[in-house]
Write a structure and sequence with these properties.
The protein is of the alpha/beta class. It is built from 14 helices and 19 strands.
Length: 433
């Protein structure tokens, strides 16, 4: 009997499996229909021996010390600050838009104060911000919106920014200084030996069993368990009874080149040219030294594995119907981006998983993240050596003739209480490739 069946071996499922097993001593079965752990963060070595991210670049960043410290138990980190360039009007310029972006685009030499004025003169003041288009146009004006945002958004989401909620482009700031980092979080790093190795460490516990290449529906009636944690699409769980929730899907084209480096930064966005949205070169992310390099072209698609919930009001309303069903399903917990129809970063999913675990055990999240289960110690009773005359030694000394001498001290019954001890847990290892 398993205490928990967990569907999905990505961030949400793996963190909950680890906490339930190592934090509470629960027995967990985690299943995934893919042939690997780590979900979309899965990385592996390609045929050339280069560490690549199978499902596009995953860059870890967070402002949560709690989340960072928790994951630090399972990986060493390589410090990395992500930078992105956009190919616009035949040149590569920093994105998010900053002071250098404007100076290069317009051939000027503005300072931060002058850039404030520059953007203010172009911004269109709107009384109500409703869409992604409104967000950008109200900050930087229509020209920069057309150059940097509209084409990229249409490729990425299959919709015009005017059809999407404001949250999509609100995630991308505009800076009046020269800070060209894509993220400004307090903690920015990459797992030193890759994401897959980190996940293998998360799941390395004798109370955790992993089944890959398995759809949970194939085994849910065969494997006894008490509660279910579901991290897949919530509409799929309920057999699409209200219709399908819209997701945006991705397609990847990987290439290896006989060259040490191809790009000046890890990611180059293509808002206006080509069918792909961006190109990633992985050696920037991993720091790997290799005579060759591997890149991936990323294409956004309407069909395929679900990646991004599409943020529109009507989709949010449809999700609420599924949310009501989910909340009524006692003993089933819905966690993660797809299960809660939210556009979460990796650290946000990790935080959500820790919060769910805290709720399950009735604790604060900080306490839940630190909890370590101490198994109940068993007292063993073993017989002492017995001499030919049937008397047990009581003083602990044996004689050369093999005969016992005297009476047992303490309880006088010839038995002793061994020291409490823990057995070494059986360890499982996963290949990170």
């Amino acid at each position: 009997m398993f205490d928990y069946l967990i569907v999905g071996a990505g961030f949400a499922g793996s963190i909950l499996a680890e906490r339930l097993a190592r934090g509470c001593g629960k027995k967990v079965l985690i299943v995934d229909r893919r042939p690997h752990i780590a979900g979309n963060a899965y990385d592996h070595y390609d045929d050339a021996g280069i560490l690549v991210h199978k499902y596009g670049p995953h860059i870890f960043h967070t402002n949560s010390r709690e989340v960072f410290d928790y994951l630090s138990r399972f990986t060493e980190w390589r410090q990395y600050q992500h930078r992105v360039l956009a190919s616009v009007d035949g040149q590569l310029v920093p994105i998010p838009i900053n002071l250098d972006t404007i100076n290069r685009m317009y051939g000027v030499n503005l300072n931060s104060f002058q850039m404030d004025e520059f953007l203010a003169n172009r911004a269109e003041k709107l009384e109500h911000i409703r869409t992604s288009e409104d967000v950008v146009v109200s900050k930087v004006g229509r020209e920069l919106y057309e150059k940097f945002f509209r084409g990229y958004t249409r490729k990425q989401w299959g919709l015009d920014p005017s059809e999407l909620d404001a949250q999509v482009t609100a995630r991308v700031p505009t800076r009046t200084n020269r800070d060209d980092r894509y993220f400004t979080d307090s903690y920015q790093a990459m797992p030193k030996q890759g994401f897959t190795r980190m996940f293998a460490n998360l799941l390395d516990h004798p109370n955790i069993k992993v089944m890959l290449n398995t759809d949970y529906r194939e085994i849910r009636d065969m494997v006894p368990y008490r509660e279910l944690i579901f991290t897949g699409p919530v509409d799929e769980y309920f057999d699409y009874c209200y219709g399908k929730l819209p997701y945006r899907c991705l397609e990847f084209k990987h290439e290896t080149h006989n060259k040490e480096m191809l790009q000046p930064v890890a990611v180059i966005n293509y808002p206006n040219d080509y069918a792909y949205t961006r190109v990633t070169e992985f050696k920037h992310l991993t720091g790997q030294e290799h005579q060759k390099t591997s890149i991936v072209y990323e294409f956004s698609r309407a069909e395929g594995d679900p990646y991004y919930p599409i943020p529109r009001a009507e989709n949010a309303e449809l999700y609420k119907k599924y949310q009501t069903l989910a909340e009524a399903n006692k003993g089933v917990h819905f966690v993660g981006r797809l299960a809660t129809y939210r556009y979460y970063n990796m650290d946000q999913v990790a935080a959500q998983a820790l919060t769910v675990f805290a709720n399950l055990i009735g604790s604060s999240r900080a306490q839940a993240a630190e909890l370590q289960y101490e198994p109940r110690l068993t007292t063993l009773t073993v017989p002492m050596g017995i001499a030919g005359n049937g008397h047990a030694i009581g003083n602990g000394h044996s004689h050369g003739n093999g005969q016992s001498n005297g009476h047992s001290n303490g309880n006088g019954n010839g038995s002793c209480r061994t020291q409490d001890r823990k057995t070494n847990p059986r360890r499982r290892t996963f290949n990170s490739t």
